[in-house]
Design brief:
The protein has 284 residues and is of the alpha/beta class. The protein is built from eleven helices and nine strands. Bound molecules: pantoate.
Length: 284
């Protein structure tokens, strides 16, 4: 696996691949890789000739300095994992390579970046859009792969790609879960043993709510989820919203849309975990 630290070098290597008519699949990450990331690499390998992974902990998407400071980092282990899974190229830039100058670009994605994560983490998605567009400009991949666990992020990246006219196919990859259901996340490693044990309540409750919802209203389903999770000591739901899967607007009844998702953010102590469930997805 070739490791590239300079943006200029990354651009020229990617350009050469395009000249050779090799298709490239890009997996942007912030490191602390787990099986969820590796499943993105595996999907990219299936769909493209060459896989490029980036590891960059993007400061502009953290609205909390402590969160940035505490974000798990283990580049040595990440490199081993990427080699094992057969990644061809790793882009490992520092802040100066991505932001030679402060990035003042601001984006407006309508409702998509105002609700849920956008509401509770102001500026977060602007930072995500800044870094992903910068990475897209450098790598110019054919396809880019993102996890469905970050449901709202995926919707915003699709919208950004459309708005900024990138000729890049955005591929969403299903959430990978631990054996007990917890959605894989780099933040899971920050949980204490006790929090980790209790954290199964999140996925379990979302799965249970899928059946519960079949005979209950939206409001009843929201209350069911929030009450069950908040009943676990040390766990606090920041939001649980049932929304149209495309627009992320709240829905009031199950027949309001053919595509309905439930998105949740929960604090386990100081650690913030997100997950989602799809209640309904009709083929259009
Ligand atoms: O999902 C992530 O890990 C990050 O938000 C991303 C897309 C790599 C941008 O920094």
């Amino acid at each position: 696996m070739q490791i590239i630290e300079l943006s200029s070098k990354m651009s020229s290597v990617a350009q050469l691949l395009r000249k050779e008519r090799k298709t490239t699949g890009f997996v942007p990450t912030m490191g602390a890789l787990h099986k969820g990331h590796l499943s993105l690499v595996e999907e990219a390998k299936k769909q493209c000739d060459i896989v490029i992974v980036s590891i960059f902990v993007n400061p502009t998407q953290f609205n909390d300095k402590n969160d940035l400071k505490n974000y798990p980092r283990d580049t040595k282990k990440d490199i081993e994992l990427l080699k094992e899974v057969g990644c061809e190229l790793l882009f490992l830039p520092d802040v100066k390579q991505i932001y030679p100058e402060p990035d003042n670009r601001t984006y407006d994605f309508g409702n998509l970046d105002k609700v849920m994560e956008g509401y509770y983490r102001p500026g977060h998605f602007n930072g995500v859009a800044q870094v992903v567009s910068r990475l897209f400009d450098i790598v110019k991949p054919d396809k880019a792969f993102f996890g469905e666990k970050d449901y709202q992020q995926l919707a915003i990246i699709r919208e950004m790609t459309r708005k900024l006219n990138y000729d890049i196919e955005i591929v969403g990859v299903p959430t990978i879960r631990e054996d007990d259901g917890l959605a894989m996340s780099s933040r899971n490693m920050l949980l204490t043993k006790e929090q980790r044990k209790k954290s199964t309540v999140i996925a379990r409750t979302l799965f249970e709510s899928y059946n519960f919802a079949k005979s209950k209203s939206i409001e009843e389903t929201i209350n069911f989820v929030v009450e069950k999770i908040d009943n676990v000591s040390g766990f606090n739901t920041e939001y649980f919203e049932i929304v149209d899967g495309d627009t992320l607007q709240r829905v009031n009844s199950w027949d309001q849309s053919g595509y309905i998702a439930g998105c949740i953010a929960v604090y386990a102590g100081d650690i913030r975990l997100i997950d989602n469930v799809i209640y309904k997805k009709e083929m259009s």
